[in-house]
Amino acid sequence: MRQAPLERFYSVIPAGGVGSRLWPLSRADAPKFLHDLTGSGQTLLRDTWDRLAPLSGEQRIMVVTGRAHRAAVEAQLPELADENIVLESEPRDSTAAIGLAAAILQRREPGVIIGSFAADHVISGSTLFREAVASAVAAADAGYIATIGITPTEPAVGFGYIECGEPLDIPGAEHASAVSSFVEKPDLDTARTYLEGGKHLWNAGMFIARADRLLEELARTKPELHAALVELAAAWDDPATRGPAVDRIWPGLEKIAIDYSVAEPAAERGRLAVIRGHFQWDDVGDFASLAKLNTSGRSGELAILGENARVLADAASGIVVSRADRVITLIGVRDIVVVDTPDALLVTTSEHAQRVKAVVDALRLGGSSDVL
Predict the structure, then answer these.
(1) Sign of the C-alpha dihedral computed for residues 43, 118, 256 and 99 taken in this order
(2) Cα(115)–Cα(133) distance, rounded to whole angstroms?
(3) ω into residue 78 within 30 of 0, thus cis?
(4) Which distant-in-sequence residues (6+ apart) come within 8 Å of 355 by Cβ?
(5) CA separation for the pair 300, 116 (Å, rounded)
(6) Are 243 and 237 in contact (CB under 8 A)?
(7) Residue 5: beta bridge partners?
(8) Is-contact 316 299, C-beta < 8 A?
(9) 122-124 and 200-210 beta bridge pairing
(10) What is the dihedral of CA 51, 11, 113, 94, to 10 degrees?
């Protein structure tokens, strides 16, 4: 039986960022969220839409993306209402993206509850996901900023962590806890300690709040940024005023992640609630996690991605992503990463997959923007 959408709930999908640790597959003109990385036959963006539509309804999903990606996003999401695509002239990090969405939606529908979910994450377990979001909505309705933390299944060092504090008494969110602290990506020994202790969750970057509460928290910590976003929102729904406002205001917006501008300050004030999520989640942050995702975590196997990939392997494991026509042969190599595109080739190992971002930074500094 199909369940009704959650009351007063609006989904927001920030579809930004290049996913530089997945270079050369992910590029500025074809970012991570526009790829099928799971073999589902759909892009990560489309998967995200399909996951959120039952929770909020198709007419209550807003996508925030770059101007350059408008055509691709609209092609992926033909159901997306025109007034619900918010175009950034240039990236200004997640506070600007989510804060502007909150300000626009609060003007349209005072008291609306918004949930922000990245366009490029992989989630399975729709019932468990809905239960977690419904609990977060209840916490948001009670005045908290809410986040969903993922129950760790291994001592992962590629994720940030949330330390759970005391349980909170919130009707409809029986398993909500206060957040004691946010922890950056730990070393392996620390991650093992977190896993054994049971108080830490993976930080999945999901935030649910009443739009007015989120803006109130932002006004407390970043008053200038808050004022600029509210001014933008006031001009947004009139095409005659939107363009001039964006040209005047957007370049001066502070670049800061919402974790730092809203979530951490709210936690310090005891106003951040975390809901423990038991569904499967992965941010597909590098090729090592992509390999694990496509082999169901089985070590010793070789994942092959690419519609026409031509790969011969003997005693090899890891991942091959092929976007070129050449034959790729692997013999006796373990945990290898090979990404072959017409204009760039990456070869590394799973152990060093996080270092791909440094290569991208070096290419940018060296002026090789044609391959980025």
Answers:
(1) positive
(2) 8
(3) no
(4) 348
(5) 36
(6) no
(7) none
(8) no
(9) unpaired
(10) 120
Q: Residue written as tokens 């890891």?
A: 318
The answer to whether the beta carbons of residues 301 and 315 sit under 8 Å apart is no
CB 193 within 8 A of CB 94: no
* Amino acid residing at 252: G
Q: Which residues of 116-135 are buried (b: 16+ CB within 10 A; e: fewer)?
A: bbbbbbbbeeeeebbbbbbb
CA angle, 104 then 143 then 63, to 5°: 30
Side-chain-facing half-sphere of 37: CA atoms under 13 Å: 33
Any idea which residue has 């009139």 for tokens? Answer: 238
The residues that bridge with 212 in the sheet, in sequence order, are none
58 vs 298: CA distance, rounded Å: 36
Distance CA 83, CA 315 (A): 53
Alpha-carbon span 289 to 43, nearest angstrom: 17
Q: Which two tokens stand for residue 77?
A: 């999401």
Residues making up the chain, counted from first to last: 372
pLDDT of the residue at 1: 62
- Picking from 258, 61, 49, the residue whose alpha carbon sits closest to that of residue 147 is 258
pTM of the model: 0.94
Q: How many CB atoms lie within 10 A of CB 311?
A: 17
Q: Which two tokens stand for residue 247?
A: 């040209």
Rounded-to-integer distance, Cα 230 and Cα 216, Å: 11
Q: CA 345, 351, 355: angle at the middle one, nearest 5?
A: 55
Distance, in Å, from the CA atom of 257 to the CA atom of 307, rounded to the nearest integer, reads: 35
Displacement of CA 186 from its chain's centroid (Å): 20
Give the pair of three-digit tokens for residue 199.
Answer: 């108080």
Edge-to-edge strands of the sheet including 344-349? 302-305, 318-322, 336-341, 344-349
Distance in angstroms between the alpha carbons of the first and the last residue of the chain:
46
Instruction: Give the whole-angstrom CA distance, residue 289 versus residue 108.
Output: 39
Q: Are 105 and 112 in contact (CB under 8 A)?
A: yes
Instruction: Going from the first residue of the chain to its last (372 residues), give the mean pLDDT of each consecutive group of 10, the final group possibly shorter.
Output: 87 90 91 90 95 97 95 96 95 95 98 97 94 97 96 90 95 93 90 93 96 97 98 96 95 95 94 95 92 83 90 94 93 95 94 91 90 90
